[in-house]
Design a protein that fits this description.
Blueprint (H helix, E strand, L loop, with lengths): L1 H21 L3 E8 H18 L4 E9 L18 H10 L3 E5 H6 L11 E4 L2 H10 L4 E3 L2
Parallel strand pairs: 1-2, 1-5, 2-3, 3-4
Helix pairs in contact: 2-3
């Protein structure tokens, strides 16, 4: 009996260790003002992945936060910063960019105005809530 108990404890310990190793950090970055947040936020995401490359990151943009995902968007304070290139680079590293469809309707924007790297979600704020409550994403607002 003692031998079986030790074996079960060893197995449980092994499962706990392997489960911890499989755990992945998950973060949602919330953008609602591209002019104030885009350059800083994209830099934060790049730095985040440089230090923790296995982090699952989703960016949710709504209201004025969607502007950096429009085709041809550049930083208004530094036109040398091309958001499309930065977004494509982060997308290649596994970052998902989601645009709120309510914002599209309210601002008379069309999906084809956005970078090919953008995905769409019915509601940005609902999506952020779901990522936090259902999928246990940490929340960051740059």
């Amino acid at each position: 009996m003692r031998h079986i108990t030790k074996w079960i404890l060893a197995l449980l310990g092994s499962l706990l260790i392997s489960g911890a190793a499989l755990a992945q950090d998950k973060v949602v970055y919330h953008f609602d003002n591209a002019q104030a947040q885009a350059t800083k936020g994209l830099r934060n995401i790049r730095n985040h992945l440089d230090v923790a490359p296995d982090t699952k990151i989703t960016v949710v943009a709504h209201a004025d936060g969607v502007d950096f995902l429009l085709d041809g968007a550049k930083d208004p304070k530094n036109p040398n910063i091309d958001y499309g290139a930065l977004v494509s680079d982060l997308k290649s590293r596994g970052v998902h960019f989601e645009v709120c469809e309510i914002t599209l309707k309210n601002r008379n924007l069309k999906k084809d105005q956005f970078s090919m790297d953008a995905e769409f979600t019915p509601s940005g704020v609902v999506r952020i809530g779901q990522l936090q409550s259902r999928e246990h994403f940490a929340y960051i607002k740059p």
